[in-house]
Amino acid sequence: MTVIIEFPRQATQPTAASDISDAVLHELLRKAVVAHRAGEARVPGSLGHRHHLAVALAVLEAIEIVMEGCSLANELEQTMTAGIKDVKVLARIAREYDGPESA
User: Fold this and answer.
1) CB 64 within 8 A of CB 72
2) I need a labelling partner for 44 at 20 to 30 A (CA). Which of 9, 35, 70, 80 fits?
3) What are the Cα distances from residue 15, in Å, to 20, 54, 67, 85?
4) What is d(CA 61, CA 69) in angstroms, rounded to the nearest whole number?
5) Are the C-beta atoms of 52 and 42 separated by less than 8 Å?
6) Alpha helices in the chain, H assignment, sequence order
7) How many other CB atoms are found less than 10 A from the CB of residue 93?
């Protein structure tokens, strides 16, 4: 299988957190929630458990990069670990998060 990756010919302009559409943010959060739930369903400490939680954290870190939020991934991970897995609630937390002191 061959994977072809095309890069844009022009540099993209940096976007602010408010420029990220809800659909994109919700899709990334959905992927993180699915991976986190899959990790919780596995035996703690197993390879599947660690793999799915690592995937969830990687997606959350991607959201943190896009949203330009310092330690946003940690905040979202702690929120999901606490049992809050509603995408709309997580999106609101991501949009309103303004650093560790705002939590």
Assistant:
1) yes
2) 70
3) 7, 26, 9, 26
4) 10
5) yes
6) 22-41, 47-67, 72-81, 87-96
7) 16
- Rounded to 5 degrees, what angle do the CA atoms 33, 13, 102 make? 50
Burial of 55 per CB tally in 10 Å (0-12, 13-18, 19+): middle
| pTM of the complete model beyond 0.85 | no
Q: Which two tokens stand for residue 81?
A: 């670990």
Other CB atoms within a 10 A radius of the CB of residue 73 amount to 22
Mean pLDDT, consecutive 10-residue segments, the chain of 103 residues?
66 57 90 94 94 94 86 91 92 85 63
At 13, the amino acid letter reads Q
- Chain centroid to CA 19: how far? 17
